[in-house]
Design goal:
This protein has 550 residues and is an alpha/beta fold. It has 4 domains: 1-159, Single-stranded right-handed beta-helix, Pectin lyase-like (Pectate Lyase C-like, 3 Solenoid); 165-277, no CATH class; 282-459, P-loop containing nucleotide triphosphate hydrolases (Rossmann fold), CATH 3.40.50.300; 464-549, Helicase, Ruva Protein, domain 3. It contains 13 helices and 40 strands. The protein has a 12-stranded parallel β-sheet, covered by helices on one side. The protein is globular and about 85 Å long.
Length: 550
């Protein structure tokens, strides 16, 4: 192998003449080198000092840098800069990426595992992460003293905080999702000054966004919901603004500004959900009616609301009221709005006075099933207790009845739920969801299970025209304008893929919208100039056709 020259492309592959490992290629790389990596898993821990280099997965290749067996960071960079493109990093006892006074760019990368922050950026060098996923980690990303951009990235299933920003760091965090954090979604401390906009923060154990130690963030158009603590909290001495943010289904108050904080809450930011009183119920029903399609689902939910309302009137009049279980079965394919309707159902029950809090808790098999005898019953009981006063939503509930071999405890979770649902039927609404046929088998696993549910609501697939309307809403919400001629292309595409067994309904609509945005971005980059505002907003028929063809 020859020594690398500046800017040269090096290949990591098992092919003759290529470098067998990434470390071997880095040992020969000079400034500006691009290292292209063929598909494969590379058990390596990498350290770069003062080097400017790009590590890129070959087109269509699945590249994993696997440091899961190590105790040091998978990639540690000091000085210089590194660009990562389309690579998965698996950490062990250390972090996945540590950048100290080094430029870091990551595009379409995935990070899993590790101790401490999965990605740590320290110092004054800029960073840019776009289109990445950070999942199953101890902490998501820590930004200390640095400026840069974190965009279109998902941080999920974190045992600590999702994003930590401190020591004067001033990043821009835009269009990101932070969900499933045991502690806080975003924690800003020690003079942090981030701009956080168009982000969704949900399912946190503590606050959705917590601000402390004289920090001054700008929060714009963020959605914070389903948090164990308050939605957004500012500590004493903190400043900043909260603009056009929505806070729902959190601990009260939705937005908390401590005494001594100079925070400004402006422009329609909402903390704590919709208005109280009779208007609340009407507003929630209007929200239900505004959903695309689902005529039978809407009728079923309205019928339930009518019955509960009349029961309340009878109770107030001193008339007898029969016992009513609020547990439901939502049957149907993915992407048909089951989770959205379940969340709305909890708010409706709260507005009617049936449930005390109306909070929404979504779980799956792994949240309920333990590893040894007695562990499953304990886990299930804890989650059930935490869900009292609101909705416990069990997605793909039929997986509880699918044995994975000796020592599987899914049935124990079902048996525990059956008893708890009866004992506390007035304190919680349990909704189980999944494919129609699988849910029939699920109900047969315990003689008393089917009787615990008052009704089965069937969620039908969206029609092609309804999916076109869903895409139209996504386009409008993101300030795009769609070529009118695209309608026929959309309808034909949705008509074709709806015959597939894995048809994802609104999920496929979302994927198509994202593909259109990518096609537009690639087209605009080739203009050789800065696009006009109209060009930035426009999604042309060619963007649609290219997205459909992917």
């Amino acid at each position: 192998m020859t020594t690398s020259t500046p800017g040269r492309t090096l290949l990591v592959s098992q092919r003759p003449g290529a470098y067998p490992t990434i470390g071997d290629a880095l040992g020969q790389a000079q400034q500006g080198a691009v290292i292209t990596i063929d598909a494969g898993s590379y058990p390596e821990l990498l350290e770069l000092v003062g080097l400017r280099v790009t590590l890129a997965a070959a087109p269509g290749a699945n590249v994993v840098i696997d440091g899961s067996g190590g105790t040091h960071p998978v990639l540690q960079v000091r000085g210089g800069s590194v660009v990562l493109q389309g690579i998965e990093l698996r950490a062990g006892q250390g972090a996945a990426i540590v950048a100290e006074d080094a430029g870091l760019t990551a595009q379409r990368c995935k990070v899993t595992g590790g101790r401490g922050p999965a990605i740590s950026v320290r110092g004054s060098a800029p960073f840019e992460l776009t289109g990445c996923t950070i999942t199953g980690v101890e902490q998501g990303m820590a930004i200390e003293g640095a400026s840069g951009r974190l965009e279109n990235t998902v941080i999920e299933d974190v045992t600590g905080d999702g994003i930590i920003i401190g020591l004067g760091a001033a990043p821009v965090i835009r269009d990101c999702t932070v969900t499933g954090c045991t502690l806080r979604g975003i924690y800003v401390y020690q003079y942090g000054r981030p701009v956080i906009e168009n982000c969704e923060i949900s399912r946190t154990g503590l606050e959705g966004i917590a601000v402390a130690h004289h920090s001054e963030p700008v929060l714009k158009r963020c959605s914070v919901h389903d948090t164990g603590g308050v939605g957004i909290a500012f500590g004493p001495g903190c400043r900043g603004t909260v603009e056009a943010c929505r806070v729902d289904n959190t601990a009260e108050p939705g937005i908390e500004v401590s005494e001594g904080a100079g925070t400004t809450v402006v422009d329609g930011s909402r903390g704590g959900g919709v208005a109280q009183g009779g208007g609340e119920l009407d507003g929630l029903l209007a929200e239900l009616d505004a959903m695309v399609g689902l005529p039978r689902v809407k009728a079923e939910v309205r019928a339930l609301v009518d019955e509960l309302q009349v029961n309340e009137w009878r109770r107030n009049a001193g008339l007898p009221v029969g016992a009513a279980a609020h547990h439901l079965i939502f049957a149907g394919a993915p992407g048909t709005g089951k989770t959205t309707v379940a969340r709305l159902y909890g708010k409706l029950l709260k507005a009617l006075g049936v449930l005390s809090r109306g909070q929404f808790r979504e779980v799956s098999r792994r949240d309920l099933v333990g590893q040894y005898i007695g562990h499953t019953a304990e886990k299930t009981a804890v989650i059930f207790e935490e869900s009292k006063g609101g909705v416990l939503f069990i997605d793909e509930a039929y997986t509880l009845s699918r044995s994975s071999g000796t020592g599987d405890f899914g049935q124990e979770a079902i048996d525990t739920l059956v008893k708890l649902m009866e004992d506390h039927r007035d304190e919680v609404a349990v909704i189980v969801a999944g494919y129609t046929d699988e849910m029939v088998d699920f109900l047969a696993t315990n003689p008393g299970l089917a009787s615990r549910f008052g009704k089965t609501i069937e969620f039908e697939n969206y029609t092609p025209d309804e999916l076109l309307a869903i895409v139209g809403r996504m386009v409008s919400a993101e300030a795009y304008e769609l070529d009118p001629a695209a309608g026929e292309v959309f309808v034909e595409y949705f008509r074709r893929i709806s015959q597939d067994a894995n048809f994802g309904n609104a999920r496929d609509a979302r994927r198509l919208f994202e593909a259109m945005r990518k096609s537009q971005s690639q087209r605009l980059r080739l203009l050789g100039r800065v696009p006009t505002v109209d060009e930035l907003r426009g999604l042309l028929i060619e963007d649609v056709r290219e997205a459909v063809a992917r």
